[in-house]
Structure formats: structure tokens, C-alpha cells
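Exercise 3.2. Students should predict the tertiary structure of the chain below and write it as C-alpha cells, then compare their answer with the key that follows.

Predict this chain's 3D structure.
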Amino acid sequence: MIRLKKVDKKDKDLLFSINQKYLYEMTNFYDDEMDENGNYGYGHFDEYFTDPLREAYFIYSDEILAGFAMICPYTMTGRKPDYTMAEFTIFPSFRRKHLAIDAARLILSEHKGQWEIKYNEKNEKAKKLWNTLARSYEPETIHLNEEETVLAFEVK
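Answer key:
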């Protein structure tokens, strides 16, 4: 069973740690480099603990931490969505078990409104996930550039 747990300030170090692993994985699609401490920059990370419009969730499969999601209302399209999926991952050992689609559906069901979800065209798994998820919402597809695509849709 999938469940979400909102990330609290006391969980900041854990979110930072697992976000670093996710950012490392994203270097397969982006040319991000580590800093002098071996970390990848994430300019808005601290704002998830100070900005009331930003929310982060741990994703659990039963009682085991299986991933995380970070959402906010900030956009790269110039529109004014209620939510954007800033970051989302299911850990590798939980992939191919349909947890990603179930977790994403749960997040959307708890956050009704206008959504934007961006993915990198080179990330075939993310592209498939987000297009499968958004299909029933009849999304508008916005190409930011050759590599990045945004799906814009409404969850009622």
C-alpha cells in the first residue's frame, strides 16, 4: 500500500540525503556538477522548510521509504499553476512495481487544481510515467526547448 508522509523540519537531513542521490541520478540527463563537498546544488531546497507554498512528501510502500516528491506552484512556462512537480522519484529497488504511477496518482488526488509536470526528453522512464499519468487529464504539451517538456492539465 502506498502512503504519503509530509516532510517535517525534523526530516530535513533525510530529505537532503535522498535528494542528493536523486540529483546524482539526474546527471544522466543534465550536466550538473558536484560542489567542493561532493553535493549537488539545489537552490530552493531550504525553501521547502520556510515557504508555505512548497511541500515535500516521503513516499512509503507499506512501512518502507520508497521515494519522495517535492511540489510547488512555481513554473517555467510563465503560467500560474496551482502545483508543479518539482522533484519525484521512486528508489530503484521499488521500480517496475507500479509504485510511481500509484504514488503520483495519490499526490494528484490530494492536490486538485492546475498542474504542470516537466520531464527531460532523454529520460524515457519519466516521459512514459508522466504521459501515462496525464493522459486522462488531456494535457497540453509545452516544449520548453529540445530537451524539456511540460505537461499542463487540470485535476478536478
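Discussion points: The first strand starts at residue 2 and ends at 6. Residues 12-26 form the longest helix (15 residues).
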